[in-house]
Amino acid sequence: MHRRTACLTLLAVPTLAAMTAHAQPARMARVAWLSMDRADPQLPSLVSFRNGLRALGWIEGQNVTVELWWADNSRERLLQLIVEIVASRPDVIVANSGL
Questions:
Q1: What is the pTM assigned to this prediction?
Q2: Across 35-48, average pLDDT
């Protein structure tokens, strides 16, 4: 796992764990994944992030939903997405810088 991806996982997973401890059992956690890249479900940092979640017991479709937001290399699109994501009120926002 890349260092950056490990940092993303280390930051997001404790937040999810704390949120779940206080949430109702039937509630599914929502993670907004924001990337400056073009849509690519096989993006290495996204694949690593999902693998890290799974290794810690976060299973997509069971106890977590990962919503993918792609800016398509557009700063204007990125700014629009930030507004939309915040308005949608996910439990956790993960920003992938692509650096």
A1: 0.73
A2: 94
